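User: I'm writing a tutorial on reading structure tokens. Could you give me a worked example: one chain, its sequence, then its tokens, then a sentence or two explaining what the tokens reveal?
Assistant: Sure. Here is the example chain.
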Amino acid sequence: MTDRPHQLTADRPDPPSRPLIQRIGAILWPSFFAAAVATVVFFIFVDPLVLRDMTFPEMNISRQGGYTIAFFMFWAATSASSLFTWFLLRPASHFRKPQG
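And here are its predicted structure tokens:
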């Protein structure tokens, strides 16, 4: 056994690609939980009806509608964050051009 730390080399193949549904799930599932927590924490301090009256008083949005809109906004934001992380963690070989 060697004492050297494992080093990635250019000739080492990338791990096999995951199925598309698994990649989508890895982005949406954690962001769903993060959005749920963010929604709960946000609405501990903010009443959706007061927020509506401050931002869009002419719209008839119920309290439950405010919760729903906020949840999907938080989910979109956390999904974008997860997607960006996935993008940054892709193997470098995706960006290398074949030499030849």
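What the tokens reveal: The chain has a mean pLDDT of 85. The chain is about 60% helix and 0% strand.
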